[in-house]
Amino acid sequence: MALKRYVALISSFVIALFLDTAVLPKWNLFGMVPFVMLALMLGAEQVFSLQTAILIGAFGGLFEDLLCENMIGLTPALCLLAAVAYEKLPKSSDTKPPILGLYCLLLALAVEVFRALIAWIIGMRFPFSNMILYGAFPRAMLTGLWALLYMTIFKPLLKRQVDAT
Fold first, then answer.
1. Exposure of 160 by Cβ count < 10 A (0-12 exposed, 13-18 middle, 19+ buried)?
2. Each residue of 27-42: pLDDT tens digit?
3. Tell me: the pLDDT tens digits for 123-160?
4. Is 151 exposed, middle or buried (0-12, 13-18, 19+ CB in 10 A)?
5. What is the CATH number of domain 2-164?
6. How many CB atoms lie within 10 A of CB 25?
7. Which run of H or E residues covers position 108?
8. Domain ranges of the chain
9. Residue among 30, 59, 43, 68 nearest 143 (CA)
10. CA-CA distance, 148 to 118, in Å (whole number)?
11. Among 26, 55, 134, 158, whose Cα sits 20 to 30 Å from the Cα of 127?
């Protein structure tokens, strides 16, 4: 059973990296590109563990920064902060999917706001409120939907497992 979980996580990691770096920046709807690696990390954290999410966030963010970004280290740092924040949110095994989607939406929105603040601090000038309303919020909604998709994909992998606690 653990082999299925590792195969699913590794293949999801490769697909998310490919979507974030090659596919979605070129082919998107109205410029709204979800942060698929963050969604994968949040989905894996909900279903599996914080350690799995930390590995996905650190390595996925680093690979994305090396391939596409100017500031290396920003994406893994924001992913790790989101993983820790998601761990602190009140949730249980019977938390409804809309609430989990709202958690993921809020964390993705926080990551987008932090990116915008850092870009603004280093000298980029843009209308901050318009960027949040028309750019970051729709991308955060799409990221939350991707996270719910990953949670539903990973949930069957935990069948017939007993918690050690």
1. exposed
2. 877 778 889 999 999 9
3. 888 887 887 888 889 999 999 999 999 999 998 887 65
4. buried
5. 1.10.1760.20
6. 12
7. helix 97-121
8. 2-164
9. 43
10. 28
11. 26
